Structure formats: C-alpha cells, structure tokens
What does this fold into?
Amino acid sequence: MTDVLDHELPFPEPGTAADAAFVGIGEIPSGKFPDRTFMGALVEVSARAILDAGLAPRDIDTVLLIPCLHGGRDQADLIFSRLVEELGLNGRAKSSMMIHSGGSTSDSATRVAAGLVASGQARNVLIAQADKWGSAPVTEMVDMLSGFGIPREWEVPSGVTFNAVGGLITQRYMHATGSTAEEMASVCVALRQWARLNPNAMFKDKDLTIERVLTSKMISDPVHALECPMLADGAVALVMTSATSARRNHDSWVRIAGSGGTVSHYSLGQERDLAVMNWPRAGREAYEQAGWGPEDVDLAQVYDSYAAVLAQGLEGLGLAAEGEAARQFAAGRFSPGGELPANTNGGLLSAGHTGVGGGTALLAEGVRQLLWRAEPERQVEGATRAVIGGTGGTYMDSQVMLLERVTR
Amino acid sequence: MTAEPIMTDLTVDYYESLGRGQLVVQECGDCGALIMYPRYRCTECFSSNLGWRQVEGGGILHSFTIMRLGAPSGYEADLPYAVGIVKLDEGPQLLGRLWPGEDGTWDDYVCDARVTFKSAPAADVASRPAPWFERAKS
Ligand SMILES: [Zn+2]
It folds into this structure.
C-alpha cells in the first residue's frame, strides 16, 4: 500500500495570497459562570477577535463554528447561522458552517479556513467557539461522555466513561515508560504553574502540589480526581485571512508552516498502542512540510485532557525523548522558565476543559504567543515557532499544526 | 443512557454467542481475515461474505482501569469495576470487563498479563452484552 506521506502535497508559498494567516484572537475567562449566556459569550469573543484583527464585522465573509457540547438547542443555533445575524452579517456573509471533530476541531477548522483562503473561496474567516460545559448538569454530562464516542454496541455495555478512557491510556503509558505516579502528577502541577500566570485560566488563583494530586480520590486507576479535567464555561475566537491582506494591516502575523494528521481509531478498544497513538506519523508529515524540526520549536500547545495524553503527544512530536516526557515535566523542562514551555495557558487541565473549546484555547494561546501578545509573565521571549497538537473523541486522531511568526 | 437503536444486524449473532458463554469474532469468507469489532464489509478485502469464528479466549491485557467513582447511570451499583483492552491470541482486540481476583481486588492484573475469556451469567449478559475476562492461571 502506498503511504499518504509518499505523495508530495502542494503547500502555499509563504507571503502569497494563498498563504493563510492568523491575525486576530478574542478570549474571555474560563471557569464556572452560570450567569454568562452562551450567545453573549460567543458574540463577545467574536467581536474581540475581529477588532483584534483590525477588521470590521462586515469584513468577515465566512464563519466557521466550533460546536458546543452543553445542549442541542444552542448547537442548532450555531448550525443555523444565529451568529451571522447577531453580528449583523446578514446578507453579507458568504457561508456559515460548523466544523466538528471533537477535541481536534480547532485543527480541523484551521485546515478548512486555510483551504478556503488558499483556494480564493474566503477572504476573512471567523472561527468562533463558546461552551457552557461548566454550568451544565453534571450527571447529564457524565452520561453524555459515557455514551458519545464510545461504541454502544461493543463498549458501552462494559460501563466505560471518558475518565475510564483516561485511566486506560495512563495505565499503558506508565507501564510502557516506567513513569511514576509522582511524575504523572508533576504534569498537572506544571500546567497549574502556567495557569497561575493566565488571567483567563479557570484555576488562576489556586496552587497545586504533587501531594495534593496524589491524595485526591482515585477515580479510574491510576487517574486521581485532580488529574481529571474540570468541565468549564469558556469562549474563544480567531480570525484568519491571507498573507497579502495580513501585510496590509499588520506588522506581524502567524502562518501555518506545515500540518499533519492521522486518524487512528473510533473505538479505543481498537487502538493498537495506547502509549503512543499516532503522533509520530502526524508529526513527520508536518515537519517535512515545514522544513524545520522539533529542535527549532519555541513552545508547544498539545492536547492535555489527561497527563498521559500530553506526555505521549510531546514524545510523538519529537519534543521529548521516547518515554521521557513525564520525567521531564517533573524536572521542570516544560514549566515556566523551563527549556521548552508547553501549554502556557494552563491547558485543559488547569485553564479548564471547555468541551470542544479546550483545543481551541490551546491554539489561540499558541497564536497569541507568536504574536508576542501574552501577558509579560508568561510570554515566551522571542517565540517564533510553535507546535499545536490536537486530538478528539477517545483520542481518535493525532493532528499537528506547525505555526510560525511572520513580520512585515 | 442512550436510547438510540444499535446495529442489531451486526450484533445479533455476537450477542447470542456471548449469551451462550462463547466469544466469537467476525471472519471473512474470502480472505480469511479475523475482524473485531464486527463490520459490514471486510476491512482487509471489502468482501461482504462475512461469518463468525469462535476464539479460544486467551489473550494479552493491553491496558486496564478500575472505575471507582463517576459511573454512568445504571452502573453505580457495580462500583468498583474494571475494564480492560485484550489482544486475543488470534489477532483481533476488544474491550471488556475484568473479573476481580479471589480477594475481590484487581491487584493481580498488570499490563501485558495473560487473560482468558470467562463469561458472566447469561442473565447478566442479556441485559449488558459485555465480554468478561479473568487473569489466566499461570
Ligand atoms: Zn476479506
């Protein structure tokens, strides 16, 4: 069989009209905000992103909606163009559509936006996300997370939940790498250190120690309560355009240097190696396209609903030696002041798991860092290259976006 | 939990075997591939000439977890309970439940340990068609 990587994929020349660029970000704090409305949050981050991009709402011709998980009616509002009307884009917007691949949706939306720009089908694309996951009824959400994305014919009868999925992956990762419970907990602690520097993070005011993690209740061995992501309300938006229009309005912007991806399974029970998933293949494709490698990376923003998910992502993307990511977290390599800052917004584990938005927040933080617009205490000085890694469902795919800063 | 219908055409034989205390996997009548989970077409050669093969039930435990809190509705009374992913000796792999040891714990289980299929009572399988595995006696 011919491997997809054997084919040369055409990729836009930097600086051309086909070269897509991130030019704006909007975000509001994540956490529990029962009084904050879904549509209010969505409009707020959209407005912020559009203004941040130096545009007016009427400049947006394409709206890509990232789904919400808290309720069907709001989801339907997204699908049926409510945001277009709320932003006064009626009669102007060319298309409004939802992109959905669960936790990797932000990567998928980036692919779609970049493709639309590259093929001349869109000029300015708004990518918008909001969720009320933190305020939704917990039992309903637990049932949803044990019924959606877990095959109802073959695995639901065993009583699997998403925390069980996290437990299965973590157990295998620890077995394969010899990582200790303390080393796994140190991943959560490092993310908390970053979250303490991010005013938008759910846990910006709460310190975390390895001891607190390991003395919290066991949920799904070997995953403790404080190693599970906390469901949160949150909203974030990004604006993409072409490099030629970015150059007209901005001194700096962020381009996609390369991308890669592999969809590995639907059922977790069909994944061949839970300690590795498909990061190595996805990373290889992306680095080949970009012409740079892991040694050139200034920061990483990789999906982290559980510590093992982040650790195996960093390893598969060449950002940590095989089997060493958790140990390197324990040694401070990925913490503030460390050699390779990772998930500088605090990630899903400490900024909050905003449903499909967790990955979007990681992406937005990567763009923000490359635009040098993070708060000074967490800005990675001189950052020019970032790795974004996303995965959805029961870690069904490994998606990679390599971003680089461009100046006029 | 979800009230939506399941793919009964694919599940009927599989569930019926589980109910009889047997574990079967799909077998392609054309290329001989063993397939799990059951599919509409062979994932190797696309044939729809698919039947069933009973497996020995032995395999390797790829990973497992013990659910202690936060069970889905209807499973609260089962807590704690364990699930694992088993790579069968015949090749296919699947997720199922794990029997506790004689001491009532799963302390004997470790990744890459040998496990064997050991069905739950028919009545349990009828309400929850899950395959059950136990730690193989060494
Ligand atoms: Zn076949």
Q: What stands out?
A: The mean pLDDT of chain B is 94.
